[in-house]
Design a protein that fits this description.
The chain has twelve helices and 21 strands. The protein is an alpha/beta fold and 447 residues long. It folds into three domains: 7-143 and 264-326, FAD/NAD(P)-binding domain (3-Layer(bba) Sandwich), CATH 3.50.50.60; 152-261, FAD/NAD(P)-binding domain; 346-444, Enolase-like, domain 1, CATH 3.30.390.30. Strands 1, 2, 3, 4, 5, 6 and 16 form a seven-stranded mixed sheet that branches. It has a five-stranded antiparallel sheet with strand order 17-18-21-20-19, sandwiched between helices.
Length: 447
Amino acid sequence: MKRKYDYDLLVIGAGSGGVRAARVAAGHGAKVAVAEEYRIGGTCVVRGCVPKKLLVYGAHFAEDLEDAARFGWQIEGASFNWTTLRDNVLAEVTRLSGLYTETLQNHSVEVLPGRAVVRGPHSVTIGEREVSAERLLIATGARPHIPDVPGCEHGITSNEAFHLESLPGRIVIAGGGYIANEFAGIFNELGSKVTLVHRSNRILRGYDHQICDRLLQISTMKGIRFLLNSTIERVVRRADGTLAVHTARDVLECDALMFATGRVPNTDGLGLESAGVQLDEHGAVRVDEWNRSTCPSIYAVGDVTNRVQLTPVAIREGQAFADTCYGNKPTKVDYRCIPSAVFSHPPLAGVGLTEAEARNTLGAVKIYTADFRPMKNVLANRNERALYKVVVDDASGRIVGAHMIGPDAPEILQVMAVIVKAGMTKAQLDECVAIHPTMAEELVLLK
């Protein structure tokens, strides 16, 4: 019997969500193709989480080498070479992109290179070629937002940060979210003089205030300059190649300016209007709880929907879509209790309700904290304190939030995310025996 369409499913975008959806749908027996205009792997693998975390590892050696002498190690003549780190990170990105491509091929998913444009509910053009599919899945992700200020073309974004020819001696970073704070930490550790400009008086909106304040305090102590309640008004490139970044109060001289002021869903020029797909005010695809758009044959997952812009969420959405549409297993994503982390120096992480959210929604809450200097920091003479915080609903004793900053905080918080998700009580946490000496033991000893 001849197929009505070329494919059962055509996925536009080969990032984390799109690749998962394609692989699982093909595993359920669907004929699947993926269109990708750049590289397989998407934001996370190519220009996001993975290369960023590798830069974080590389940057942290600055402190480790500094601390080594207190632990008896004499390291003479240590120096840093940016191009070595950059090229090794980019080589790892290429390797991982290749693995993602192999995964698609091993599951008989056809890769269609080129920019896809939607021409109707079941039709897409890729270059000169027109293809049809019973269902389309939009998984085109998001891109960095660049503020519309004079001279903005002289700035870079996180996309270009991984490809810099050399390390800037002075860098201004615009933004106060996780990307801004992560790159502020990276560049500062690697020796750049960093100034962070943010329009609000608080960094890291959505994270617990006390944890964010601790990061601000530690980052300032490390030499990062924060200009809060400030915005960039214009950028001028000087004859010597340096930049003059004008704010309302200051003119900041620097060698590079990086915009980290949010991310915009990639729907421009995608042709979705031709199929009656509605977008919200931010350009994101409007979808229901089953990831279906306002066009019955077109679905969307990941950052292009602007629900929760995190890689594991995109993967869950891609899995849920494929299981629902092709696996006879209707699945919705649970957006409650999603843990997240900021790979700053030191890193922080959180899950569930912040203290402020809990007080506003639950009323009576109990807050348990541990404010301590990790053992390694003590011997290293590093005056940097970790802060762990657990939020408990007073009525039920249930743990409704956990937040922390300190070495390996994201690794430790993953376990607390399970505890919050499972609805465990503080009494049950207290019953756990500590592993000593560890930082994580502080969680079962909280007062």
